[in-house]
Amino acid sequence: MATREEALALLARGELVHSAETVSAAVDRVAAEITARLGESNPLILCVMTGGVVFAGQLMARLPFPADFDYLHATRYGQDTAGGALSWRAAPWTSVKDRTVLVVDDILDEGVTLAAIKDRLLHQGAKAVYLAVATDKENGKNKPVTADFAALKVPDRFVFGYGMDAYGAWRNLPAIYALKDE
Ligand SMILES: O=P(O)(O)OC[C@H]1O[C@H](OP(=O)(O)OP(=O)(O)O)[C@H](O)[C@@H]1O
Ligand code: HPA
């Protein structure tokens, strides 16, 4: 976990990728897309903790249709900048059986996390699983899943802000930054 001083230094050296205004406009756009596609399906919205919390909260407040909400927690980066094995920390409490599920997360990077989540929810009997992400990383990788809804693209750098942490810090930023290459 970065100390307060380390976190301030990370931000000072970070490079702005998307301003808070750009992020907000992109969330508006995605909310309209989701409303058009899922507005009549009474979906269960599942926030992927921890990184999905900011996007899920801001997105939900823009969805003008009935929906249920719950969360799950799966993690494979911890506070590191490279992914490892996926660890499930919490399953959704609400049953997904026969539900249209909208999974909300901060970033589709290599796609390992969301592929495993989608697979598990379908095995648990979800009728359909849609993936919404705040950011889709342009890393040229052949990702095992694609996002049905993606607010923004981000470059192939380690990014932080808007739910995403840099060494544990700065999930709370309304804008998105890239770590300075060391
Ligand atoms: O597409 P992938 O390469 O699998 O990476 C994306 C996942 O990595 C991050 O989670 P992380 O493991 O850092 O957990 P956290 O949200 O609890 O920090 C992020 O929130 C996504 O869930
Ligand atoms: O670029 C990233 N930033 C923060 N968290 C992440 N989890 C996967 N990729 C990233």
UniProtKB/TrEMBL annotation:
Phosphoribosyltransferase domain: from which residue to which, for each copy? 21-165
Name the GO cellular-component terms: cytosol
Name the chemical reaction catalysed here: IMP + diphosphate = hypoxanthine + 5-phospho-alpha-D-ribose 1-diphosphate; GMP + diphosphate = guanine + 5-phospho-alpha-D-ribose 1-diphosphate
Q: Which domain of life is it from?
A: Bacteria
| Record's keyword terms, sorted | Glycosyltransferase, Transferase
Q: Which GO BP terms apply?
A: GMP salvage; guanine salvage; hypoxanthine metabolic process; IMP salvage
Q: Which Gene3D superfamilies match?
A: 3.40.50.2020
Q: GO molecular-function annotation terms? A: hypoxanthine phosphoribosyltransferase activity; magnesium ion binding
Q: Coiled coil where?
A: none
Concerning PANTHER family, the annotation shows: HYPOXANTHINE PHOSPHORIBOSYLTRANSFERASE, HYPOXANTHINE-GUANINE PHOSPHORIBOSYLTRANSFERASE
According to UniProt, the name of this protein is: Hypoxanthine-guanine phosphoribosyltransferase
Task: Name the source organism.
Answer: Azospira oryzae (strain ATCC BAA-33 / DSM 13638 / PS) (Dechlorosoma suillum)
What broad taxonomic lineage does this protein's source fall under? Answer: Bacteria, Pseudomonadati, Pseudomonadota, Betaproteobacteria, Rhodocyclales
